[in-house]
Design brief:
Helix content: 25-40%
Bound molecules: flavin-adenine dinucleotide
Strand content: 15-25%
Number of helices: 18
Largest sheet: 10 strands, mixed
Distance between the termini: 42 Å
Number of strands: 18
Radius of gyration: 23 Å
Shape: globular
Length: 545
């Protein structure tokens, strides 16, 4: 909380080159790129960082194989290049994964034709991943007996990438990178609109946690990265743009682990769209849906759940069908899709392109970011910093590489120290990977500090919240460095505890109270109550299938 309080003061007192409104993926990469290149940057979000769309994705960094059907090869090429760059830059976080795709009778294409498409996709992606392969029905049955092959005509397997940790953690790491390079960021600070005063943007801001009076943030350039709320924020500041957002709702359900192999099972759902069974630690994430909506404030409905459960039960052979009681957690968000027409007027909704658009009004020094994907985030960061530079803001380090994992020497030193400490012997039995691998992926160079904590006091390596993998020293580090303002920030976004454990199990965990004390000190009891008051009722615990 100290970090947030001190940043709130700085937001009031300092003036900035750039203010970024919105700390989802687009705002986070903009802030990280600009701060790394030497601009004085502020970043605010009225919720938590990644607290809206960017915590509800399918966790995939993918080249958009499905856009080949609409012939948008330029987009596919661009996304494949972005995916490859992410995989190269974040080898421990963004990893190749196989998509084991099954087709059923009556589907609009035959397996051989789609296999050919998968080869073209592989070539467009610079042959960067493993090659596709054909899956005759018998092989599907042998290699993945959980797949229902009764109606199957065959299939194919190809590669894309996925985020090993969750999307929100990935986004937060860009915010943390920006903070490390001098960005002044604060979550739960709302922009209530901005006005021009000479060469300055003056943004009216409000601390939504502690209330108090509105205050002004002064910046030369204003970046609207409010995701599905970009149009709303432009209306508040009186900005007009050629692009607007059309919104598409998507949900995922998280259930017990269904597949032991680390692979994505892909199907075509009843609506003809790709539908995935994605690994998530020791759980499985199923989805998604694609429903046009006009309001970005969405929630999972019974109809959404029925659609996902119906589709999955048809396509998998389970000892009994998945039911509502099997759902551990849900994810729900809207895709902000950039369109050049008026919002809601797009005709072919499912085939709308998922390209991002960065629109600048030079005379106002105002930039709006429309659409986009996690996959394309490095391009967004670079495009935005080029535009800011073109507005005359000095970027003293224009070629600075603002993204990516630390150099190999730092990595080797971490793993060397981890071996000397015998760190992996502390790995929790429920963990899906060695402790050293997980700590490096989540914290990179900061993980060296955790080793020091454990050397000083081995109790720091104890799992604090039973059933999860999170250690006492990680919670202490989160309290110091991760701007955890509400318990949900930690349980749902910095970690993925709330995605893989049921609320009642989290509530019963003996370490939760201690975790709250580490995170919030005297406010621990209030933060705990606030979290459990806000968590939706979930289905009964401990189903089995
Ligand atoms: C179901 C689903 C699955 C997806 N799967 C993938 C995938 O697998 N791979 C992929 O690459 N992409 C995927 N996407 C797309 C991707 O998630 C989004 O395009 C991306 O997250 C949008 O990021 P953003 O930063 O624009 O918006 P957001 O993440 O919504 O961030 C905008 C932020 O602005 C803040 N804000 C709004 N108004 C204000 C204000 N007035 N003041 C301060 N802050 C404000 C909000 O609180 C929010 O945090 C998926 C999307 C959905 C919905």
């Amino acid at each position: 909380m100290k970090l947030r309080r001190s940043n709130l003061l700085k937001l009031r007192r300092q003036s900035f080159d750039v203010l970024v409104v919105g700390g989802g993926i687009n705002g986070a990469v903009s802030a990280a790129a600009l701060a790394g290149k030497g601009a004085r940057v502020a970043l605010i979000d009225r919720a938590d960082f990644a607290g809206v769309t960017s915590m509800n994705t399918s966790n995939l960094a993918w080249g958009g194989i499905k856009y080949m059907e609409t012939g948008d090869f330029a987009l596919v090429r661009k996304l494949c290049v972005s995916r490859n760059q992410l995989m190269q830059s974040y080898p421990s976080t963004v990893q190749e994964i196989r998509f084991f795709t099954t087709l059923t009778k009556g589907f609009r294409y035959r397996p051989g034709y789609l296999l050919l498409g998968a080869w073209v996709y592989w070539l467009i992606g610079s042959c960067f991943t493993r090659t596709p392969r054909f899956l005759p029905r018998g092989r599907i049955r042998r290699e993945e007996p959980i797949v229902n092959t009764d109606d199957a005509t065959g299939g194919f397997e190809y590669s894309d990438a996925y985020l090993h940790d969750n999307d929100a953690r990935f986004v937060f790491n860009f915010v943390r990178t920006a903070l490390d390079r001098g960005c002044v960021a604060a979550n739960y600070v709302e922009s209530r609109g901005a006005r021009r005063e000479g060469a300055w943007w003056v943004t009216r801001a409000r601390d939504v946690i502690d209330g108090g009076e509105d205050f002004d943030i002064r910046a030369r350039v204003l970046i609207n990265a409010a995701g599905p709320y970009v149009d709303e924020h432009n209306a508040l500041t009186g900005e007009t743009t050629a692009h607007h957002h059309t919104l598409s709702k998507g949900i995922h359900l998280i259930v017990k682990r269904l597949v032991t192999e680390r692979r994505v099972l892909a199907f075509f759902a009843d609506d003809g769209r790709l539908f995935f069974v994605i690994p998530m630690g020791n759980r499985t994430c199923i989805g998604t849906t694609d429903t046009p909506v006009s309001d970005p404030n969405v929630a999972v409905t019974d109809a959404d759940i029925a659609f996902v459960l119906d589709n999955i039960n048809k396509r998998l052979k389970l000892s009994r069908p998945l039911a509502v009681a099997d759902i551990i957690a849900t994810r729900c968000g809207v895709r902000p899709l950039a369109v050049k027409s008026q919002p809601g007027k797009a005709r072919d909704f499912l085939h709308l392109s998922r390209k991002h658009a960065v629109e600048m009004r030079r005379e106002d020094a105002h930039i709006s970011i429309f659409g986009g994907k996690l996959t394309d985030c490095l391009n967004v960061g670079n495009e935005v910093s080029d535009l800011v530079r073109s507005l005359g803001i000095a970027l003293p380090y224009p070629a600075y590489r603002w993204y990516g994992e630390p150099p190999d020497a730092v990595r080797d030193e971490f793993f060397h120290q981890a071996r000397l400490l015998d760190l992996d012997s502390y790995t929790a039995p429920e963990s899906s990977e060695p402790l050293s691998t997980r700590l490096w992926r989540r914290y990179a160079a900061e993980a060296l500090g955790l080793l020091e904590n454990i050397r000083e006091d081995p109790r720091q390596a104890e799992v604090l919240i039973k059933g999860t993998e999170y250690l006492r020293c990680e919670v202490a580090q989160a309290a110091r460095r991760e701007m955890i303002t509400k318990l949900e920030d930690f349980l749902r976004r910095r970690s993925k505890i709330a995605l893989v454990e049921r609320p009642e199990d989290i509530r019963r965990s003996p370490g939760l109270a201690e975790a709250c004390e580490i995170l919030f000190g005297d406010a621990a009891a209030d933060k705990l109550a606030e979290y459990f008051d806000g968590v939706p009722a979930h289905p009964p615990a401990s189903p089995s299938f």
